[in-house]
Amino acid sequence: MRSRTGDGLAPSLCNIFGTLLIVAVFALILPLAVPQLLGYQVFDVVSGSMEPAIPTGSAIYVRAVEPQDVQEDEIIAFHEDDAVVAHRVLANRTSLGEFVTKGDANNVEDLAPIPYDALIGKVVMTIPALGMFMALYTSTVGKVYLFLTLACGVMLNMLADRMRTANLMRERNLGQRLENDESIANTSDKVMVEDEPVGTPSDELSSPATAEPSSPRSRGWLRTVLIGVLALVFFGSLGVVLFVKHQYHVSDETYEAAAQSYTTVQAGGTMAPIVVDFDSLRAANEDVVGWIYCPDSRINYPVLQGETNDTYLRHDYLGDYNINGSVFVDCDNAPGFTDANTIIYGHHMNEGAMFATLDQWANQEFYESHPVMWLLTPEQDYQVVLVSGHHTSASSNMYDIYREHDERFARFLQEAASLSDFKPLEQATLNLDRNYIMLTTCAYIFDNARYVLHGKLVPVDSAGGKPKAASK
């Protein structure tokens, strides 16, 4: 009689794909989680100040060391305000308790020495590209994807085991029936004693069945429950992902339609490069206060200001719920961009929408090809001359409201300039008499990280894209 194992193509494929998914999740987690358990800190590199030694998108592993033990030419990670920076040591001034540092890609050394108490540790290893995946640990959608992948892998392996068990039971039952049929056939051929009924005694027929082990129902129901729970988790997570994807799609369509309905492109000259129909736009929503636009980018959105900062956090410019929300001005800023600095928020969406591209300005080449944005309002249009961009914390003083052009505001601009990832062009000189805007979005290099882009408002001869005289 042939031996059967219950294996088949379907269970094997489920095992292979399930195992690959589980391995993929752990291959992503282990290089980040295990070093942290061993006392290392892991950071994602989001700027090119240390290229080519440390490419953008790398993960760096930092080990705590005594400041006095740091040698020249070693790379250290340190706190600078609310950001984490990794630069090379030019000098270790032990008598002063400070480091002189410089980014390999920067032309000059860092503006201020780094005090010993800002030191996190020494960079001991770099893994290119790994840092790009670290968003999975801080992004809600990324965590859903990660958990979804793991649940799918476990479920496929359990399903494969279930299929093998079912196949094995079917094969055993088939073999049992064949043996019983053979036994009946052999018994019917025997010569029986006269008057003895011909046939197989019931005890003999039933004995093979009773001798066969019963199916492992106690394990089977538990496996079924686990598969059911994992299936619910899988499809629930999948539902969340599909809902978010749908929201992205709806938002993209909504804002593309808004750009087509309310804006037209024109030759700029001394005016803005687009015209905005603010009369129709404000008829749709009176909270619209402007339009932010950057040529050759996805930044092309109406700007709103609500009663609170939650008003347009998860609502589009028409007031409908959407996870992408809107681009909006801080509710504490004065109307009309009249404060010394006005804060404009936008989500960092995975599809690149809203302000997801702000951190691209950390790249000097990208900045030089996009040094100016445009802010249009019904009363006055502005060139937004970008002067600095950097990472910061959501709780930093960058989010203070600066209304006056005073010394406090001057220190704010100087601090932002000292942290900048890019070297500004000549036209981007700081002018304390100008008003500024700060564009801000989420970042994922540390908890509550943000990327901010500072721009100087330079008035032009248009309002809403129309000549000032014609706009009155």
List the helices and strands and how they pair.
Layout: H1 9-37, E1 41-44, E2 59-63, E3 75-80, E4 83-93, E5 98-102, E6 114-115, E7 119-127, H2 140-188, H3 202-211, H4 217-262, E8 263-265, E9 274-276, H5 278-284, E10 288-293, E11 300-304, E12 327-329, E13 341-345, H6 364-369, E14 372-376, E15 382-393, H7 407-419, E16 436-442, E17 449-459, E18 462-463, E19 466-467, H8 468-471
Parallel strand pairs: 11-12, 13-16
Antiparallel strand pairs: 1-2, 2-7, 3-4, 3-7, 4-5, 5-6, 8-9, 10-11, 10-14, 12-13, 14-15, 15-17, 16-17, 18-19
Helix pairs in contact: 1-2, 2-4
Structure, explained:
By secondary structure, this protein is an alpha+beta fold. Among the domains are: 26-137, Umud Fragment, subunit A, CATH 2.10.109; 262-471, Sortase, Chain: A. Helices cover 35% and strands 22% of the residues. It contains eight helices and 19 strands. It has helices spanning 9-37, 140-188, 202-211, 217-262, 278-284, 364-369, 407-419, 468-471; strands at residues 41-44, 59-63, 75-80, 83-93, 98-102, 114-115, 119-127, 263-265, 274-276, 288-293, 300-304, 327-329, 341-345, 372-376, 382-393, 436-442, 449-459, 462-463, 466-467. α1 runs antiparallel to α2 and α2 packs antiparallel against α4. The radius of gyration is 33 Å and the shape is flat. Mean pLDDT is 81; it is low at 1-5, 191-195 and 200-214.
